[in-house]
Design brief:
Largest sheet: 8 strands, mixed
Distance between the termini: 26 Å
């Protein structure tokens, strides 16, 4: 359920904000329009909100600036510590996309750059869980890497190999990046309508609304 990637973020916690700001050339294309992407998620959310994969709290800050009530769910202890120091009074819990405990009755589930830590089967199960907890009109708003097809994914991996981006290629091969058709099907099968908007060469805004 993505927990196998938790320890990676013990290292990322020290460099994540530099990477998302474009200072890491290898990951620069992944984070093109980063602030715009987070803003799009925050703009689409309705409160109260449960945010998965809070990381260093960048999306959280945008959600709070909209006056939304937010509970953060983050499995990595180091990331929780950074965010707790950055955002005083934020409720943070140890959990993940599939297992989380909070008294909040959410209107939205949101996340950025994290849903790919689940297999396709786990993604489908996650949306079934969200459908059970959300009212009609409730939303799931995720920004995550998707590929238009498996062939497109293979092409971009080959391209990044030619650029010598070994760490990015390793990520693309190791984690569970899926395709647009698969994502659309698992979301609609769970009882949501869905709109996808391509934000950069890697990331789509995924806005699902419960029927």
């Amino acid at each position: 359920m993505g927990r196998e990637f938790v320890e990676i973020f013990d290292e990322w916690v020290h460099t994540y904000d530099d990477s998302v700001s474009g200072k890491d050339e290898e990951y620069k294309d992944v984070f093109v329009k980063y602030n715009e992407i987070l803003q799009a998620v925050a703009d689409a959310a309705i409160g109260p909100v449960i945010e998965f994969g809070v990381g260093t709290g960048n999306l959280t800050e945008k959600l709070l600036s909209h006056g939304l009530e937010v509970v953060g769910v983050e499995p990595n202890e180091a990331m929780r510590k950074v965010t707790a120091e950055k955002i005083a009074g934020l409720t943070l819990v140890d959990g993940d996309f599939l297992e989380f405990e909070t008294d909040l009755a959410p209107q939205s589930f949101v996340s950025s750059y994290a849903f790919h830590h689940l297999t396709d089967a786990e993604k489908a199960r996650a949306f079934q869980i969200y459908a059970e907890q959300l009212p009609s009109g409730g939303k799931v708003v995720f920004a995550d890497t998707l590929f238009e097809s498996q062939a497109a994914k293979n092409e971009i991996i080959a391209f990044e190999q030619t650029r010598g981006h070994a760490n990015l290629v390793e990520d693309l091969n190791r984690e569970y990046y899926t395709t647009v058709p698969v994502m659309e099907k698992l979301i609609t099968d769970a009882g949501f309508t869905v709109e996808l908007l391509k934000m950069n060469n890697y990331v789509f805004l995924i806005e699902a609304t419960k029927k």
